[in-house]
Design goal:
- The chain is α/β, with parallel strands linked by helices and about 260 residues long.
- The chain has one domain (about 5-150, about 185-260): Rossmann fold, CATH 3.40.50.150.
- It has helices at about 5-10, 20-40, 55-60, 75-85, 125-135, 150-160, 165-175, 190-200, 220-225, 230-240, 245-250; strands at about 45-50, 65-70, 95, 110-115, 135-150, 180, 185, 200-210, 255-260.
- The longest helix is centred in the N-terminal third of the chain and has 17 residues, at about 20-40.
- It starts with a helix and ends with a strand.
- The structure holds S-adenosylmethionine.
- S-adenosylmethionine binds near residues 71, 72, 76, 118 and 122.
């Protein structure tokens, strides 16, 4: 069993606990805004790859779309199925247990592909995942993908370890893109990600940083974000900074919008 599958099976029941926190609300708000901006106008077919507990799949189905929610963790899918039932969306959301690197789905099939958080967990074989996501998208349609950001992760490592240990982790990360967060991840540079999408047959047309200024917050400051007034200010800062190329480099995650050729 892959490390990611075992990890997400283990934490499926508690996965969503952190999303109520102000710090993760900042992240989700950007995802929600970019998804909303790229949803097809007419009821369409959407793939939520690595869709986990179905947070985005259900939101998109509520807008009238048919969604295929695909994930490698059967336990995450169990939580998703309960959410789908509770929202009376069984007729609109189908779940598939599969790895994104090898999906038994037709070519040129989806009007929109969303991959919120899964590609980085494919380690060194991330290109296979990107190839697959692009393969199943229709020509001209969007692929929205969020990944760990290499330089942003270097900052997280700095905050987490003492310097003697930290510099070795950062050295490896900068050389290879590989690092260990809660589980092994491949962290991308924006240029590397653009190149991977190009190889797969899509062009990155926009990129957004998620947790841009907030990536610099200490653990204590993240708690202070719970104060509504502080949160509102940070909401403003993040929205102002999310699309600035010179700042995306230090964001925790990068969300790219690619369009299939
Ligand atoms: C950070 S969670 C994101 C879940 C969901 N997209 C969301 O935003 O709440 C990452 C998800 O990717 C899934 N995943 C990781 N590697 C995968 C792979 N190779 N194939 C399919 N899903 C994968 C995990 O099981 C997990 O549900």
């Amino acid at each position: 069993m892959s490390v990611a599958r075992a990890f997400y099976n283990k934490i499926a029941d508690t996965y969503e606990a952190g999303f109520g926190k102000a710090y993760w609300r900042l992240y989700d708000q950007i995802t929600a805004e970019i998804i909303a901006k790229h949803l097809p106008r007419e009821p369409s077919l959407i793939l939520d790859a690595g869709g986990g507990t179905g947070r985005w799949a259900v939101a998109m189905a509520r807008e009238g779309h048919k969604v295929v929610l695909l994930d490698v963790s059967e336990k995450m899918l169990e939580v998703a199925r309960e959410r789908i039932r509770n929202n009376n969306l069984i007729s609109r959301v189908t779940t598939i247990h599969s790895d994104i690197r090898k999906m038994e789905l037709n070519d040129n099939n989806f009007d929109l592909v969303v991959a919120e958080g899964a590609i980085s967990y494919c380690g060194a074989s991330y290109q296979k995942a990107i190839d697959e996501l692009v393969r199943v998208a229709k020509h001209g349609s969007y692929i929205l993908a969020s990944v760990n950001n290499r330089y942003g992760l270097a900052l997280t490592i700095l905050k987490k370890f003492d310097l003697k240990e930290g510099v070795d982790h950062i050295d490896r990360l900068l050389e290879t893109g590989e690092a260990f967060t809660d589980l092994p991840v491949h962290a991308f540079t924006l240029d590397g990600l653009k190149e991977s999408f190009r190889k797969a047959g899509a062009e990155v047309i926009n990129a957004y940083g998620k947790h841009t200024l907030s990536n610099f917050l200490s653990r204590e400051q993240k708690e202070e974000l719970e104060d509504e007034k502080v949160f509102k200010k940070f909401e403003k800062f993040e929205k102002l900074m999310m699309d600035k190329p010179e700042l995306i480099g230090f964001a925790g995650h990068i969300l790219v919008v690619a369009r299939k050729f």
